[in-house]
Specification:
The complex is a heterodimer of chains A (186) and B (198).
Chain A: H1 2-21, H2 30-40, H3 43-56, H4 61-79, H5 90-102, H6 108-126, H7 133-160, H8 164-185
Helix pairs in contact in A: 1-7, 2-6, 2-7, 3-5, 3-6, 3-7, 3-8, 4-6, 4-7, 5-6, 5-8
Chain B: H1 2-16, H2 27-41, H3 43-59, H4 63-83, H5 91-107, H6 114-135, H7 142-163, H8 172-191
Helix pairs in contact in B: 2-3, 2-7, 3-4, 3-5, 3-7, 3-8, 4-6, 5-6, 5-8
Classes of the chains: A mainly alpha (186), B mainly alpha (198).
């Protein structure tokens, strides 16, 4: 399963960039980096990724791997809708943040729903302006890297500072709730 | 101890680098910096946030971590009231009072029961949140602004908890109580309208 987790984004990248790579050594992969950077420069996307990593760090590794794939797939799909779902972007941060803050360990369907929500919100918050498959591949790859990073950090913190994920979760939920209120107002 | 030194150095660097960040005032970076600087720029916000952390350190587990979790979540309630322009009476006075009250609690080394401590923090968080929320709709990049100020608030809490590590030193409790007294007196000065001291 771990091989699948690593292999899927790499395969997606190779597949999506294949036609572009046919023209020269590197090809025009600007949309790929655009997708990746949209996630990196979106504070809400990164906050949601952090909280999702905090939640996944509390569950079994095999389940976390499947959840990671679900987050990446949702993010990749929602990227293709552009900014159509941007109004719902704070939902993932609120859900993942509150679950991390309260210390609940979700299982089964609620966990899957959370992963889909989080993945969709991460992509919706990035509001990619010209979505295509390459952009989506960039989003998937960066979601993979950031989620894995967050997961490893929270796993390491679990020993020394077990409440760190609750504190971070509260911060992320606070950001999400404020932005949800703001989008309702406008 | 190594982790503590590293954390303290990082916090110090973050604070000392803030003047350099004053130049970018547009886009995501500008919104983030503007939000990040909001709790740091006002003495009342800064002292109250740090006092929450120091008092938490005095109160020990579980409150040392419960307060930084409770504060941002309740602060959001105040922030939402601010976003929707719902007036809350005496916001500025409430913020100044929070500095006095939290400083006094530290100075007296008051080990309040969990429910009372959380209630006190929640009431004050509402005032602070309202002040932040009122400015949020006008921000150039609200998403970045909100992230910046929540992050800054949390980091100042952590800085307060880090200051609370002085408790482990000989006479540390007395140093902290002195800091608490100083915070309370500054709060009184703010409540009096920050008159010139000269």
């Amino acid at each position: 399963m771990r091989k699948t987790l690593v292999g899927l984004p790499i395969a997606t990248f190779i597949w999506a960039t294949w036609p572009a790579l046919a023209h020269d050594a590197f090809g025009n992969v600007a949309p790929f980096w655009s997708g990746a950077l949209h996630i990196l420069v979106s504070p809400l996307s990164m906050a949601t990724l952090l909280a999702t990593g905090a939640v996944l760090a509390t569950i079994k590794y095999a389940t976390a791997e499947r959840c990671g794939l679900l987050v990446m797939a949702s993010a990749g799909l929602v990227t293709l809708t552009g900014d159509a779902l941007s109004a719902f972007a704070p939902v993932g941060a609120i859900a993942a943040g509150l679950i991390a803050a309260t210390g609940i360990k979700p299982e089964g369907l609620p966990l899957q729903v959370l992963c889909i929500l989080a993945g969709s919100s991460i992509a919706a918050a990035a509001s990619v302006d010209k979505p295509d498959l390459l952009t989506s591949a960039g989003v998937i790859l960066i979601v993979f890297a950031a989620l894995l990073g967050a997961l490893l950090v929270f796993e390491a913190l679990e020993q020394k500072l077990p409440l760190a994920r609750r504190v971070i979760g509260a911060w992320v939920a606070a950001i999400g709730l404020l932005l949800a209120a703001l989008s309702l107002r406008t | 101890m190594h982790t503590r030194t590293l954390l303290s150095t990082c916090l110090l660097l973050l604070l000392s680098a803030s003047p350099a960040a004053a130049h970018a005032e547009h886009g995501v970076a500008g919104g983030f910096i503007s939000g990040f600087m909001h709790p740091l720029g006002g003495l009342d916000h800064l002292l109250a946030m740090a006092a929450v952390g120091i008092w938490g350190a005095f109160l020990g587990k579980p409150l040392v971590w419960a307060l930084p979790v409770t504060f941002p979540l309740v602060m959001v309630a105040g922030g939402v009231l601010g976003i929707f322009a719902i007036p809350v009476p005496g916001v500025e006075e409430g913020i100044a009072l929070s500095v006095v009250a939290l400083g006094t609690a530290i100075a007296l080394a008051w080990r309040a029961p969990v429910a009372i401590a959380v209630t006190i923090i929640a009431i004050f968080a509402l005032f602070h949140g309202h002040a932040h929320g009122t400015e949020l709709p006008a921000a150039a990049a609200p998403e970045a602004y909100a992230t910046g100020f929540v992050l800054a608030t949390g980091l100042v809490h952590l800085a307060g908890i880090a200051i609370g590590w002085l408790l482990g030193m000989r006479s540390g409790a007395w140093i902290l109580r002195g800091i608490g007294l100083l915070i309370a007196m500054t709060g009184l000065w703010i409540m009096a309208g920050s008159p010139a001291l000269a």
